[in-house]
Amino acid sequence: MTTNSQHSQGDRLRRPSGIRSLQLGDIKLTYVPDGVVQLSGRGWLPTSTEAEWAAHSAYLDDSGYVVAGMGGLLVEHGDRALLIDAGFGPQSFPAGEDGPIGAVSGGTLLDSLAEIGRTPADIEAVAVTHLHIDHIGWLWQSAPDAERPPFAHAGYLVSEQEWTHRHLLEEHGITKEMTAILEPRIRTVADGEEIFPGVRVVLSQGHTAGHASYVISGGGRRVIAFGDAMHTPVQVSHPEWSAVVDHDAERSAAYRRRLVEELAEPNTIGFGIHFADVAFGRAHLDTAGGPAVWEPVDA
Length: 299
Known about the structure:
Blueprint: H1 4-9, E1 20-24, E2 27-40, H2 41-44, H3 50-55, E3 65-77, E4 80-84, E5 92-93, E6 101-105, H4 109-115, E7 125-127, H5 137-140, E8 155-159, H6 160-164, H7 176-182, E9 186-189, E10 194-196, E11 199-203, E12 212-218, E13 221-225, H8 234-237, H9 249-263, E14 268-271, E15 280-284, E16 293-296
Parallel strand pairs: 4-7, 7-8, 8-9, 13-14
Antiparallel strand pairs: 1-2, 2-3, 2-6, 3-4, 5-6, 10-11, 11-12, 12-13, 14-15, 15-16
């Protein structure tokens, strides 16, 4: 059965997000789109069932895929700017056969930055939740008319555990050649470290060995940018559903359960980089004991 929350969000669950911003006191957050990827519901979340997806059909596009955005989160404090994650980069692939991923299309992040009046040169650092290819695309690839990646002047901030275990990512398409391009610019960061005014690292391992979230605080509110701890808002209702690519599915699910509880706390907002057109939101707990649901926050 489709819930009232799903009905109220309408087509937003089935389309990628455009540029969306949120103000936290002196800090401005902006989702910077880079592209979109289609995810097979049961293929990507293999412990889910056909019956469960029938009840959550509002999350599926006309082709039966979960729509997942790709991009970055721009954090602005005065003239300073930090980017969290760097999209897929200038590449696209058609849907394969019977795999967990459908069509993938990236490459608009630089245009999105330009639309909000920023250039790559404005970015002092890029903080990475984890080293999967759809989060580091513009860190190792150059624009078609350029000789080096657009953020090559900036530091690339990665959790120490993620960088130490980077060899584990080769099975996910992260080659030694890619990490060699990244390495001169890598600065490892620790759990709890403040990396930018109001931005703190919080380890959230499970999806990868060193996956990190970033907590941004300002104006009496906080935003948890939780990376790939969740790929779709339906996981707020089903935190037990781990992704097929999760490094440690049990640890990932345990963190997701804690995260949903945090996202239901007052003055706490989540940022789901893959969450279709509802990237900013909070978890609403059912007082009758039913599953939590994702509620978008637009201001």
